[in-house]
Automatic annotation (TrEMBL):
Phylogenetic lineage: Eukaryota, Fungi, Dikarya, Basidiomycota, Agaricomycotina
Record-given protein name: Uncharacterized protein
Region ranges (Disordered): 26-46
Organism: Candolleomyces aberdarensis
Length: 327
């Protein structure tokens, strides 16, 4: 491995790094069929909801094939099989003595509504605690999401919702359904924190690699350090993305405190500057080549993992991270 960190003055310091990159990337020619390429993304991919059933607003009539006296006797007989409070026993007597089927229907429906309100009140007053196995899943999926080489934005407010949607689609155990809004909010807060922690870890590894006394600065070592502790495999795509993140940190040092905001701006600018997959491929490869020239190629024990070894669930999370658009 060779490294050529130079202290000579940079004559291009006054030129926008993105414009310099554009010039170099468009000058490239690719003749290596084994070079890194963009993964295929189905831009028409989507998830359709099923047909929604309808409920008739006309209540069917209640028809009792018994006399009022028989109805009362039957109701009292069934009551003996239940344990009711004194108030409920009184309510039952009123119900049994109601003369019309419509009145019975109204009383049943009002009772259901009252029960529903009580259940909602009880649920709201009970703090939801995420089970430990679900916490582990939230952490795992959040890390894979933020480490995706196809991620469009790192600080988008909808990121946590996207992670949760991917987990629901994959049928991850213990994830609250969409209608359980209260528990879902608790889960979203946990995902948001996991995403923040994952970004912090990546930033720390890249920042450490730029220090003069860095133990290892080659792209392989940095990529492996970034994915450490996660289920992400460091593929060529990971190497390209980590090289891009280090490129941003080097060329926009004044944004170090708001690093991820700058990264998102550069990602947007990158897609506007390089409009086709081939142009983006050339530009990313140019960044990686310059990174290797400065910090050395990947060491032997940190090679890129073949893409065919990536698990299917990780590919699904990647598709959610890319939002059908690949950088």
């Amino acid at each position: 491995m060779t490294s050529s960190r130079s202290s000579s003055p940079d004559t291009t310091a006054s030129i926008d790094p993105m414009l310099l990159l554009a010039g170099r990337a468009r000058a490239r020619t690719f003749s290596d069929p084994d070079g890194p390429g963009s993964d295929d993304i189905d831009e028409n991919d989507g998830f359709l909801t099923g047909p929604v059933g309808t409920i008739s607003t006309v209540a069917p009539p209640l028809i009792f094939n018994m006399s009022q006296a028989d109805f009362i006797a039957r109701g009292r007989a069934l009551k003996k099989q239940r344990t009711l409070s004194p108030r409920s026993e009184e309510d039952l007597e009123v119900f049994l003595h109601s003369p019309a089927g419509a009145d019975h229907m109204l009383r049943v429906f009002l009772g259901l509504l009252e029960s529903q309100d009580l259940l909602v009140s009880i649920a709201a007053g009970t703090a939801y605690t995420i089970p430990e196995d679900v916490k582990d899943s939230l952490l795992k999926y959040s890390q894979v999401y933020i480490l995706s080489p196809k991620l469009l934005h790192y600080k988008r407010k909808t990121s946590a919702t996207t992670v949760l949607a991917a987990m629901r689609y994959l049928g991850v155990s213990g994830i609250p359904p969409e209608h359980d809004v209260g528990r879902a909010e608790v889960v979203l807060k946990t995902i948001t924190k996991a995403l923040t922690d994952a970004r912090h870890h990546i930033k720390e590894q890249i920042s450490a690699s730029l220090k003069a006394d860095a133990a290892a600065a080659d792209i392989g070592s940095v990529a492996y350090a970034c994915v450490s502790g996660s289920k992400t495999k460091p593929t060529t795509g990971t190497f390209l993305r980590v090289a891009f993140l280090r490129w941003v940190m080097i060329h926009y040092p004044n944004s170090i405190k708001n690093f991820w905001d700058e990264v998102d701006r550069q990602l947007d600018g990158f897609r506007k500057q390089f409009k086709t997959p081939l142009e983006r491929e050339n530009a990313l490869q140019e960044i990686l080549d310059q990174d290797i020239k400065k910090y050395g190629s990947a060491v032997v024990d940190c090679p890129p993992i073949p893409a065919d070894r990536v698990e299917d669930w990780v590919k699904t999370v990647d598709s959610y991270a890319s939002n059908t658009v690949s950088l």
